[in-house]
Amino acid sequence: MDETTRQEIVGRTLADPTGATIGTVSEVYLDDDTGEATWLRVSLGRVRTTQTMVPVAGAQLLGDSVRVPHDASVVEDAPRLGLGAHLPLPDVERLRRHYGLDGGPQPPLQDLRQSPGSVRPESGGRGAEDGPATASSRNPEAGEDGSPPGERSGS
Asked: Given this model, what pLDDT does residue 6 score?
């Protein structure tokens, strides 16, 4: 994960596998040896005063949120640690045990955002058998031919 992506993650909503909001990402922690992003500090609750850590392993960057493969209850029950600028090894080990991670390499964050102009159905959305998704299926103000409002195809 590059510096730009790390900066973009901070402030995003953290969601569980169903898309339910867990909290807000407040910081990205890097592995001391590899420099790779390994943990996300997350502010929980309505007033965001409680903070905990969530592994980057298996996380997906989707639009304005980061989706993790852990239910909200698992994240909320994570060990509460003194969250300084560095996580000591005993704290990392407690977190790994809580989330069921072994000490081996973990998959990096998947950036599933789309480049401008591309369209991919969301899960539970239109399938390939339904034909291609058009701009109008994503933007109710777009024209029937999928052109932006105020623009129409020449046909």
From this structure: 81
